[in-house]
């Protein structure tokens, strides 16, 4: 649990561009509304610059100063949402859904695959700093269960083998195409359409 | 207005009132934890559930607006069941540690569990526990007891104006705290203890000290600032164990400043508990008779104009009146109560009072602060100003040191009297906003008068108020903010140099041979000529006693029946809570006894007789001559020296707080200029 909080944080040029865009949506007096998007900006910048997408305390202070709000109000928001990592994580954040539909469709196998391939249990980070595994509640992709979210991408229809392959690819620095791992078109039935096949012309 | 029927009782409440307010108007008590009259509505504890006819389920009455014709039931089976359910949930994670909890006996949760709790628990799972937080030397936290009503969060953000508390994490893991470990930077932090409905926030100095039913409760007045906060002094035997605020809507609402609340441990330390006499340069303990005899011997044959008296900042009206009468019998009018040298014009009461009154702040619509930091000088009045600011449309300008956080935004207009000049001739940009206001207020700090050009500052501030048409029969916008509870009483009783008599400067400059200091500790001992015979009457071995030739041990404000006048001119009575230590006596009795020994016996033998002779009636007299004829002084004499802060050290500003270990710890924690404890009189220890 022990980790070091950085002493300084400043937005880089990319972040500043994003912030200007975000804050243009809010009137000056209500710019505190931008706190959640700005926390994402911080988390992404940390991911870019350190390889670990998390929100240090000093960055929350920087946001508070930028949005003219008390720091505690930023801490409250940041600690409320699970999407913000309050401590350093691995390069890839594996968020595995374990809610009922995914569990019925084999999320336990995916969990086992994560452990075998990356060597970690939920809440742990791998020793090579590449992966952090978190078990999360429903990701809303039940039709293509089980689903594993890697950073911002969903990998769906996983089983043990395909999960191992996915993690191995990530280890090699590759980024497999997100979406269904069995070639399903979005959330259409497995193996192609089953209804309305005789409709539409000839 | 809306007609609401509560348990068959028809009441009329304003539109927009809540169901809870309607129930209270009908005389029904609604249990609550998160709801507090002076804070915003959170509606998260659910204890105030009531049944509203046609509503599908019980509603939280604190957050539910009334409608015309509404029928409310506060004691139906549905309501009782709902509240029982809420109570059961609240108790799931609340520890069963009432026997070791300091809130025990005055705990909302304990009381309401008697009404709505079960006699056993159905909960078999593990209870959660929360790490305690550090929020400073005054407040002890046991966060496992917290029921997350968020009253403290709302108090800090709304009333105290220091948004440093918050609720972090969520659900089962939600915790109240500052997130980063830090002491709360508020002078009103003690009020968190009062508003916490459970034992999560308790008084650190009072930890494990007493139970509420063991305490004797005495009504008093706080004298450690000039607000005149109404207090309750809780004592057991000869000890003050804690001080709490009483509700007085016109003065302190229900808040209290930390210095007044927590410095009472100074009442037990460095006390003068017997008379002392300086013999061959060393103080020796003597009896009362010997002390009076020494004074009589020194005064023998001395003309009246070679005797002088100076009153301190914490002295009650009775002893001031008695000493003034004694001085008159001795033929002396050499009196002064302005140890700080403030150029106060006492020729008319409204020249030195907070004329708008504290309650009047609610009506004001513009404020100009001159040479004052009300946050330190009168935290409760500052909270009232903040309350007015929160209501909106309230421009605040301040002249004084830069970089001061008043807990509400304000315009810093300048650092010195140069800004006063531009405000006077109307060229300053703030003039327009100030003159456009219908009820503008000028708040002048007493410290701004304690400078060579004090009279000019006073006259300038008065003229600025006059220029903004703030001196009308229906609105008096000139306010002087004093620093301590005894200052206005002394002015009201005219404890000032008489016609042709010597003031403090003249007395210190060798104008008198005998100087009677009544609780006067604001004078540098080195400033008194060595040949002057100094009589010090007071309760603490501080600066005054260190220089004294005779020490007459008096009573502190908790140890006497006294009359105090706050900065508004409100006359309030305080009662004796404990007896003075050792041979110390109530101050007016000492003066009465001394008068007999000096052959100038005063004509009163009891407090009642003294009060009958004293021209101070209880209450607030708002009568003022609303004319623009200002106090003496010429604004042309304004210098360019910037205003200095009036209190360098909030927590150690008077003799009681300087003797307090709790306040010393606060001063260390908050990094204030340290008070030199070496001046404590060694002989008295």
Quick overview:
With 202 residues, chain A is α/β, with parallel strands linked by helices. Chain A has 7 helices and 5 strands. Chain B is of the alpha/beta class and 685 residues long.
What does this structure look like?
The complex is a heterodimer of chains A (about 200) and B (about 675). Chain A is built from 7 helices and 5 strands; from the N terminus they run H-H-H-H-E-H-H-E-E-E-H-E. Chain A is an alpha/beta fold. Chain A folds into 2 domains: about 70 residues, Orthogonal Bundle (Arc Repressor Mutant, subunit A), CATH 1.10.10; about 90 residues, Glutaredoxin (3-Layer(aba) Sandwich). In chain A, strands 2-1-3-4-5 form a 5-stranded mixed beta sheet, covered by helices on one side. In chain A, helix 7 links the parallel strand 4 and strand 5. In chain A, helix 1 runs antiparallel to helix 2 and helix 2 crosses helix 3. Chain A is globular and about 60 Å long. Chain B is built from 20 helices and 29 strands. In chain B, strand 7 and strand 8 form a beta hairpin. Classes of the chains: A alpha/beta (about 200), B alpha/beta (about 675). Chains A and B meet through helix 4 of A and strand 7 of B.
Overview features:
heterodimer, A: 202 residues, alpha/beta, Arc Repressor Mutant, subunit A, Glutaredoxin, five-stranded mixed sheet, 5 strands, globular, B: 685 residues, 20 helices, 25% helix, Thioredoxin-like_sf (chain A), metal-binding (chain A)
Total domain modules of chain A: 2
Structural class of chain A: alpha/beta
Largest protein interface, residues of each chain:
A-B, 9 and 12 residues
- Tell me the span between the first and last alpha carbons of chain A: 64 Å
Average of the residue pLDDT scores of chain B: 93
Global structural class of chain B: alpha/beta
Mean pLDDT of chain A: 93
Biggest β-sheet: strands ordered side by side in the sheet of chain A? 2-1-3-4-5
